[in-house]
Amino acid sequence: MDMKVVYEVLEGENAWMYITGTFVVLWILVWLYRDSIEIENISEKYVFVTGCDSGFGNLLCRKLDRKGFKVLAGCLTEKGADDLKRVAGPNLKTVLLDVTSQDSIQKAMEWTKAEVGEKGLWGVVNNAGRSLPMGPSEWMKVEDFHSTLKVNMNGVIAMTMIFLPLIKKARGRIVNVASVLGRVAANGGGYCISKFAVECFSDCLRRDIHYFGVDVCIIEPGFFKTQVTSLDPLERELNRLWNQLSPEVQASYGDKYLDKYIKMQRLIMNAVCDSDLSKVTNCMEHALTSAHPRTRYSAGWDAKLLWIPLSYMPSFVVDIGLKLVLPRPLKSV
Asked: What are the transmembrane regions (predicted)?
């Protein structure tokens, strides 16, 4: 080939690389600028948060209160409500809320409607949730699945549908807390099922109501040190599930399996659980304050570097990875 032709080809390739690189840099700069733009009149906007007794919900309410929002905090217990009010400003108000009760949600909505008036409700953060019972699927009874689903799935759906008219009035935000375990089914029990359901419900809802100027955002936290990941309740539940098994099923796993399973859970929780809850609440805050909120927020380094990439892998890769971590039953094939 003529050297002149080779030179022209290389020059053309360099030009395309320069154009592509410039486009990528400009795209990143525009995205960062767009991502940084905040809404106006924060002090006039109301936000309702569920599950505020502790953990993410409690921290988020205090952050939003300092930010200037009028915060309406749904707490399960009187103690949780009183403790939150003691550390919050005058713009934060609490209401007792059990997301498994339609009547409780309806009462909370009527109370909220009276608070917000004609302004409507800028945001609902469906944060309330539970992780237990959690364990190998064969150890669960149907009611064990339902006890988690009625909080994490039915509660999110009920809260959203009952509060939706107030959100539409403000052309506001719905922020649903899912999990990385709504992307990778790594545990038995109702938790992963419920979080997959939250992901699906949120996607369907977003596509159905975007015409009304309502944004639906999904928060996908990794593993964090909260009551949901506390080891003592988890171990008590695993022992309860084991003890309700028939002797035949116990024998198929072997008498050492429970101890091995608990040790594995301790190892995972101690290795990956992050104590910095603000990594999650910062995502929630951005979803409420950004003029252009993201559809999904992955919170935590384990979410970004492990769980989310793993969710894009072929199923057999995930299966092999989990087999290497989980203990093997005695009478397995």
From this structure: 15-33
Closest CA relative to residue 176, chosen from 145, 133, 205, 207 = 205
More confident residue, 10 or 87: 87
Q: What is the pLDDT of residue 327?
A: 84
- If one counts every other C-beta atom within 10 angstroms of the C-beta of residue 13, the result is 10
Of these residues, 191, 253, 261, 297, which one is catalytic?
A: 191
Q: Find out whether the peptide bond into 133 is cis, omega within 30 degrees of 0.
A: yes
CA distances from 4 to 1, 13, 17, 152 (A): 9, 14, 20, 67
Phi, psi of 277 (to 5 degrees): -70, -20
Q: Is 182 exposed, middle or buried (0-12, 13-18, 19+ CB in 10 A)?
A: buried
- How far is residue 209 from each of residues 4, 84, 107, measured CA to CA in Å? 59, 33, 24
Indicate the pLDDT class of residue 28, thresholds 50, 70 and 90.
Answer: confident
| Four-residue CA torsion sign, 201, 206, 209, 214 | positive
**Residue 191 bears catalytic tag:** yes
Question: Under 8 Å CB-to-CB from 159, ≥6 apart: which residues?
Answer: 50, 99, 105, 124, 126
Q: HSE on the CB side for 95, CA within 13 Å?
A: 22
